[in-house]
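Q: Convert this sequence to structure tokens.
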Amino acid sequence: MPTTVPPPPDDLEIPLPDVFPDLIALRIEVTQGIQNLANEMPLVSERRTYVRVYVGLDGAATWPAYGALEVKRNGQLLGYRWPEGGAIIARAGGGDRAVLNDSLYFSIPDAWADGSVTFRTFVYSYDTETPFTKEPWSFNNYQTETVEFKPGQPAMLHLVPLHLHRSFHKADVPRVYKPDLGGVQDQIAVQAQPSNTLYSINGMYRFHPIASLGYELELNPLYREPILHPASPEWNLGPCQTVLDHYLPIGNYHLPDFKVLYEEDPGDLGEGNNKVLFEPDYRTLYVLDRTVREIKHYIEPDEDGGFRAFGDDNGVGPAANPQTPVFIGGCKSTGYGAPNKHMGLFRLFEDFADEREFFLGMVDPSLPTFFGGLATGSADAAWTKMWNNFGNNGWSHSAAGTVAHEIGHLAGLKHVPCRDSDEDGEPDELIGGSIDESHPAGAVFPDCSLSDVDPEGFYGFDVYWKLWGLDAPAVIPNDPGADNPAFPFMGYQGPGWPDPYHYCILLEYYGIPCDPAAIGVPGLTGGGGGGNGGGGGAPDPGPVEPGDPVAFIGGTFDADTGAITVDERYGIGPATEHVARRVAEQAIDIIPFPFSVVVVGPAGEEIYVDRQSRSDSGHDAERLLDWGSLVPATGAV
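A:
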């Protein structure tokens, strides 16, 4: 990196005009992904950092501008940086913050982002002498900003390629996601679509305030398959299902019961009617590798209630045989948290010092899962569908957002009310469970934006853009009507980006103090949005200490009837430092909660209470929930 001022760019080496406007260094913004012009969002040591310098102008509408950035820590020079995008055209008023090249932007070496750091910029045109020889004033070509970088906890992902089957039936062909991590995928004999796994897991850098992400590929079959596989039932992550009676070409499927296409029983269609008009609630079927979309508005009912469904038949592979499973798109089933509870058994035996650690089940993207991903509370485990698709904006990546979203649930975040696609006045996010009632978005729903619409407020900036091989960093404004908008990543409106409220909560989760009210985004109820363990540490005193016996148990909860089951299988082991902290965090989980897990001592005293409000992150809150809990193994549950 250069340590002295370089020569001026070649395109500025032209004869100097006689009259010069006054260039003004207006503001310095120090961003790690989400920041306002007051630089109020706390910063993480050694996390990727960019500095944006906004250049104003007096005496002309536009003018070429260049600049340098001096970086010091506690008065000691670290070095100089030059604009990554080169020279810009300065504009009166400072230009448009949402336009990347309306500012000079500088990348900062990760090692420089630590402690108290002062950034001092000097802007000029043509050469470094013109502010002193040509401009009316030179003092306003300088601007200084001092910020504090604080260390946080790193994150660790245990990557588990889940052993699944097409149609989620053990007799069907295996469908196991094939990781792409530089050759290690060759250790897994699978049928799967190629994908760049790093694009997906690197979403943690984009959405979570971390400086370091470790990962480990778990190839042990015990992690990846149901216990006693293949004798045990397969994991079924799909929507409601029926079976095929028979199939004819051109999208003609005969199913045994037309009522499966309705959310509620539609009753009798009438006797003797052929090609009856109807409006199904669910209009997509998944049969093997074929997708039947936009089922037509008529059926041919049989006397026994069966029917023919006609639709656009897209996909490859063999025609379906009778009794082949047929999945009904949009119809919610149960049991989606089973892989997470399974991985939670092994979570007890994995721990690294001072890290936030998670198990991530990777699902082949060809499978017709109901959800794109799902997280299960105390298991520190989630599964996600590993799509490898970029959005129309060129920067958003489907699985990167899903991975970060589900790990966000494990960090305690709930959904943001943001999308109302059917305009019924209820957030679409309710299908996924609990809404964060403290989030500021609740005050303006159904309107939704990344943050308050304010040109000086919180904007996104993709500091890790090179991880996806992009041409340049994206700027994400807070105005949903602007070009390239984004929305809170814990909602369902896309594309997603970390909003300031939840990013602040995540900073606390990873050990960096952040108060939403102090940065101008106070919660509606003064709560923390479900964040677990503010400051990244356990409450004092904790229910267990490292080395104490601790168990992971799980079961189901029927939200309709209140019935609770407890699995016969559970894991037990000594608590690591991280597990001890997680047990303590459960004990202070926020209400409301549908039920509690209580550990009772020999005299009937309550040793520990875990209020179960995190089950499956509420993803199946309307029906049967999978739940999991870490508890002290010193009494009866």
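Helices lie at 130-133, 197-201, 203-207, 221-224, 338-347, 398-410, 500-509, 577-587.
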